[in-house]
UniProtKB/TrEMBL annotation, chain A:
Pfam families: Fer4_8, LUD_dom. Keywords: 4Fe-4S, Electron transport, Iron, Iron-sulfur, Metal-binding, Repeat, Transport. The keyword Repeat applies. Residues 296-326 form the 4Fe-4S ferredoxin-type domain. It comes from Flammeovirga pacifica. It comes from the Bacteria. GO terms for biological process: lactate metabolic process. This is Iron-sulfur cluster-binding protein.
UniProtKB/TrEMBL annotation, chain B:
Signal peptide: none annotated. This is Fe-S oxidoreductase. It comes from Flammeovirga pacifica. InterPro entries: Cys_rich_dom (IPR004017). Residues 4-83, 124-218 form the Cysteine-rich domain. GO terms for cellular component: cytosol. GO terms for molecular function: oxidoreductase activity. The lineage of its organism: Bacteria, Pseudomonadati, Bacteroidota, Cytophagia, Cytophagales.
Length: 458, 258
């Protein structure tokens, strides 16, 4: 799970030490955002699609219990094993048990943010099970012993030269080689042997369909198919919010997902799984791990609409300039900032403040989560629960008092101007960092002064 | 029409000229009064997670403005905050807030002005403030496939001799964000500098906006780095042909009120 207690500003400050890297990171993600814009603008009914997707999700979440049971029934009928996990520990234990039953020691795993959330890799590694991440980006961060910094582009923070050095060290590629085509080819060779020798394959789930008991996993690399088709056991891990009622709803989400994520019309592979082949097994783990808690909060339940496209990260001007690791949570960016406080309010209390509330995330989100409104609402809860930095709370209380009394406000303005040469009643002026990089104007009259003088002369 | 002039706290203190321009613009459409008891919309507290500490400010707002037919302020951000959150924070202010508008909304939607006596012979980039852009839908935004009416751009196009230039990134946030500008200083400053580089690169002499808070942040960076670009509130451009009465001039020149 997550290391350390670092707040977002601390992580952001560290990231911003290297200005060139910040500019490069910002540009790389902005490029993806622009591709997304082009793809979206080619679909005249884009806004209706988003609305439809949001309604399907809202409907499904409103009767999630029924749809989950329907899904379980149909999947069982198809010969799939179903497991229910209330939290990360149960999820990890169930997987360890399945692997033990099959004496599986070598596992290939495709991208799954849920297994990141649950800390599955370290859990299995402690039990002497080899887990190889087969998504190229995830393999890169795995070799670097890091966490993904983005949910769609896990290694977006790494430059190709860094990947070259990493591959040279671990996969013995040519020293100094950084050509992406060459490195990808070498990674393929390396992964191929892992696929061929795997005892079990773990995958995520993008969508599970209640009325068929089937599920869909989307990738661009085909690594899900390689893993799941070669290994004897396929374990698919899904959060309980991944359901859609019926097969026909998939079209709406598949059209939105890849366009929002990378600007592609559809992911290269949209793999549908319904039943195991003869002699093989498919297991699905349905995981709660805090989701029903979030579902019980009317202001925040729509955060469970998320289809993990990453568009809110690509568009977020703060994410692009602070990097995914600054969030210190398995899901970074705006969506991570509204999911994480539900997990641990105190620990993640800086994340809802890592935003200017510009609202771009809300407008870009294909399932219309009102992300910036939820950020604002988490801020209020953090304030009420007493998790604001102490200085901030005091300043706000004081500012509130001043602004709540016309007389005090006038007096403070006047005193502020006389003593400090500037208006110190404003909250942001009371805090010093403003002036490290920015000037403030200091006119020697206020609008009020001007108005009073002119009113009297009328 | 009795117009209550709402001048946000930081404009009153730091940018009196924006207040003066707004006042002059509004005078053409009704009897304008600036109730001197007004303080602030409460946004700095509320955005910091302290909505309760902002109740007083909204109470003052209600009391100061309830007697007017309409309330106008030169700030999409403050007006939007009252609309989206102020009503929940202090529900009995709803009636007043319902008749409170941003200057752009007033000129474009209510007065529906078609002509304006203003001249501004400069290259100007419109900085679409996020609250005006995505909160009030004053302009089209690049994420959405739906187009908005582009109210601010249309108002600026009424100005004689103005030349509007477009930045490469149509509507990225400036990085102000209230207390964000200090608690997340590094990212905030980087965002501002990136915006400035874009506007400068595209040849703008002035950056204008319906929100002075974005411009305050950008100007802070411009002045510190002595960059060759200026900021100006839309109200100042729209009122550019207003002649000041002598008393106003006197104050502006001597500025010896205290
Ligand atoms: S919150 Fe919306 S934009 Fe962000 S990852 Fe989820 S679906 Fe995509």
């Amino acid at each position: 799970m997550e290391k350390g207690n670092s707040t977002h500003p601390v992580g952001a400050e560290a990231f911003n030490k290297d200005k060139k890297r910040v500019a490069w990171h910002d540009k790389a993600l902005w490029f993806v955002r622009e591709k997304r814009d082009k793809a979206a603008h080619q679909i005249p009914e884009w806004e209706q699609l988003r609305e439809l997707a949001a309604q399907i999700k809202a409907h499904t979440l409103s009767q999630l219990d029924l749809y989950l049971e329907q899904f379980e029934k149909n999947a069982l009928k198809n010969g799939i094993h179903i497991h229910w996990a209330k939290d990360a520990e149960e999820h990890n234990t169930i997987i360890a048990d399945i692997l033990e039953n099959h004496q599986a020691k070598k596992v290939v795993k495709s991208k799954s943010m849920l297994t990141e959330e649950c800390g599955l890799n370290p859990f299995l590694e402690q039990r002497n099970i080899e887990v190889i991440d087969t998504d190229l980006g995830e393999r890169i961060v795995q070799l670097a012993d890091e966490k993904p910094s983005h949910i769609v582009l896990p290694a977006i923070h790494k430059k190709k030269e860094e990947v070259g050095a990493l591959f040279h060290q671990h996969l013995h590629t040519q020293k100094g080689a950084s050509d992406p085509a060459y490195l990808t080819q070498e990674a393929r060779k390396h992964l191929r042997t892992k696929f061929l020798n795997a005892d079990a394959a773990i995958t995520g789930v993008n969508f599970a369909v209640a009325n068929t008991g089937g599920f869909v996993v989307c990738t661009n690399e085909g690594n899900v198919d390689m893993g799941a088709n070669l290994a004897k056991v396929h374990i698919a891990c899904m959060g309980i919010e991944k359901l859609v009622p019926s097969q026909e709803h998939l079209g709406v989400f598949l059209r939105l997902l890849a366009r929002s994520a990378t600007g592609q019309p559809i992911t290269t592979y949209s793999s549908h799984f319904h039943r195991p082949k003869k002699g093989r097994e498919i297991h699905i783990i349905l995981v709660d791990n805090g989701r029903t808690n979030q579902l019980a909060k009317p202001d925040f339940k729509s955060s469970l609409n998320c289809i993990r496209c990453g568009a809110c990260m690509n568009t977020c001007p703060v994410y692009r300039r602070s990097g995914g690791h600054s969030y210190n949570y398995s899901i970074p960016g705006p969506i991570g900032a509204i999911l994480s406080p539900g997990k641990d309010l105190k620990k993640y209390s800086s994340l809802p403040f890592a935003s200017t509330l510009c609202g771009s995330c809300t407008d870009v989100c294909p399932v219309k989560i009102d992300i910036h409104t939820q950020l604002y609402k988490w801020r209020q809860i953090i304030g009420k629960e007493g998790h604001l930095p102490k200085g901030k709370k005091t300043v706000m209380q004081l500012t509130g008092k001043v602004m709540g009394q016309s007389k005090t406000f006038s007096m403070m303005s006047a005193i502020g101007k006389k003593i400090l040469g500037g208006p110190k009643v404003l909250a942001y002026n009371a805090l010093n960092p403003w002036t490290e990089d920015r000037d403030l104007p200091s006119p020697n009259f206020t609008f009020k002064d001007w108005y009073k003088k002119n009113k009297n002369n009328e | 029409m009795k117009i209550g002039l709402f001048i946000p706290c930081y404009i009153n203190q730091l940018y009196p000229q924006v207040g003066i321009s707004t006042f002059q613009l509004l005078q053409q459409y009704g009897e304008v009064e600036y109730p001197i008891s007004q303080t602030c919309c409460g946004q700095p507290m509320a955005n910091s997670g302290c909505e309760n500490d902002s109740i007083g400010a909204i109470k003052v707002f209600k009391k100061a403005f309830e007697k007017y037919d309409i309330v106008i302020g030169p700030s999409a951000s403050c007006v939007l905050h009252l609309r989206e959150h102020g009503v929940n924070i202090f529900p009995s202010a709803k009636e007043v807030i319902d008749k409170t508008y941003d200057l752009t909304e007033f000129l474009f939607d209510i007065i529906k002005i078609k002509h304006i006596n203003a001249t501004f012979p400069h290259k100007v980039a419109l900085h679409k403030s996020c609250h005006g852009l995505r909160g009030m839908r004053l302009e089209s935004c690049s994420e959405r496939v739906k187009r908005a009416p582009d109210k601010q751009k249309k108002l600026l196009k009424l100005v004689d001799k103005i030349k509007l230039v477009s930045p490469s990134r149509a509507d990225e946030c400036c990085g102000f964000g209230g207390t964000f500008s200090v608690t997340e200083k590094d990212v905030s400053v980087q965002m501002g500098n990136d915006r400035l580089a874009d506007y400068i690169h595209n040849g703008a002499e002035y950056i204008t906006s319906g929100d002075m808070s974005c411009l305050m942040h950008l100007e802070g960076l411009i002045k510190r780095q002595k960059l060759n670009i200026k900021v100006i509130h839309m109200a100042e451009i729209l009122a550019s042909n207003k002649v000041m009465v002598p008393e106003e001039k006197e104050i502006l020149e001597t500025s010896n009120i205290h």
